[in-house]
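To whoever picks this up:

The nightly regression suite flagged Uridine 5'-monophosphate synthase as changed. Nothing in the input moved, so I suspect the structure step. Input below, exactly as stored in the fixture:
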Amino acid sequence: AKKYLTYEERAKLATNPTASKLFNIMATKKTNLAVAVDLTRKQEVLNLADSIGSEICVLKTHVDIIDDYDQDFVHQLEQIASKHNFLIFEDRKFADIGNTVKYQFESGVYHISKWAHMVTIHGVAGPAIIDGFRDSIKQTGAGLLLLAQMSSKGSLCVGEYTNQMIEMGKQNSDAVMGFICQERLESMSDNFVLMTPGIQFNSKGDSMGQQYNTPDYVVKEKGTDVIIVGRGIYQNSEPKSEAIKYKQAAWAAYESRLN
Ligand code: 5IU
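Regenerated output under the current build:
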């Protein structure tokens, strides 16, 4: 059976500074819960962030879905993040050539490189996409998350593609902090953080291809590190107490796999 290390031990092995920071936050706050806040008004996102901030290690955004996005939104979110000690994850899923993603990361309306602690990247363009991020993250220490697998039905990120994404991560382990995946594979070394979306207690999926598993299944049976929960929390009538339930389930799964 696989021997699992603690998050404290993983923080020391991490090769990217944000990976190390995240493992330390998880260990300190005793939470491996990330929440995907896919709400479309800035005040709704900020209110939820402040109310669940103490329970989470990461808050995942899609800033391009916020109707009234402005710089003040980012400013306020950063204050809430530092008050509660969580990291901000912009799930941008960059996929173009290096030169274009550099502009998409640094410029435009959102200036993502200025505030995101981590961003997601597809590998279809090949490993040179990572070069588009190097100038910025050299200064900020931000981490890249490679999409090794997806939660949606019929995903093409499987098999040899997944293996190539892991290889891409290993070749760039200064910039890459980990993988978005559905399982821990033998080749995923302990310096990387494994984050898993597609988590909900009370649903198996939605009408648009999303597929759900439980915190216990992915953390204990499949060996990933951080659960990412969206609608299971932000659509609940009591988001804070629901967040606590997901946090407790995911943390119990982590503790039980250590034994
Ligand atoms: N997300 C997935 N699956 C993936 C990847 C990202 O669901 O494979 I990569 C995102 C989409 C959404 C969140 O922002 O994670 C999951 O939200 P729900 O828990 O509401 O399904």
